[in-house]
């Protein structure tokens, strides 16, 4: 539980979870939403993965990340996001960008 708590300390990691709540995203799609270096983003994704909050699935030359749905933290996060004034806009943005997502192989 402490690993999960430490993973949630970072605002960037909480925002990543909010974006992923709308559906899977590639590392590049996540990076496009932040003004941080790729190594820094990779570190954030590794921490979330080690905490059991996200999982990555290789799709050709990219990795798509998604929430671990049965994680208690993610279930509670989804509940809180319904009333959180910050998470709502992040989820709407993620859904909007997901509809404009480039199909695999056309990158």
Notes on the structure:
This protein has 107 residues and is α+β, with helices and mostly antiparallel strands. The protein has a single domain (2-100), classed as Arc Repressor Mutant, subunit A. Helix content is 53%, strand content 13%. It is built from six helices and three strands, in the order ααβααββαα. It has helices at residues 2-7, 11-20, 27-31, 38-50, 72-81, 87-99; strands at residues 25-26, 54-59, 62-67. The chain has a three-stranded antiparallel beta sheet. Strand 2 (54-59) and strand 3 (62-67) form a beta hairpin. Helix 2 (11-20) packs across helix 6. The mean pLDDT is 80.
Query: Percent of residues in helical segments?
Result: 40-55%
Taken as a percent bin, the fraction of beta residues is 5-15%
Total count of helical runs of at least 4 residues: 6
Question: Runs with pLDDT <50, length 5+?
Answer: none
CATH class: Mainly Alpha
Largest sheet: 3 strands, antiparallel
Sequence of strands across the biggest β-sheet: 1-3-2
């Amino acid at each position: 539980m402490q690993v999960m708590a430490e993973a949630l300390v970072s605002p960037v990691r909480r925002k990543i979870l909010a974006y992923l709540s709308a559906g899977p995203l590639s590392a590049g799609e996540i990076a496009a939403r932040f003004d941080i270096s790729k190594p820094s983003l990779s570190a954030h994704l590794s921490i979330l993965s080690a905490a059991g909050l996200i999982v990555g699935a290789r799709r050709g030359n990219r990795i798509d990340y998604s929430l671990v749905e049965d994680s208690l933290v993610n279930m509670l996060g989804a509940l809180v996001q319904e009333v959180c004034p910050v998470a709502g806009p992040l989820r709407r943005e993620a859904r909007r960008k997901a509809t404009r997502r480039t199909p695999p192989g056309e990158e």
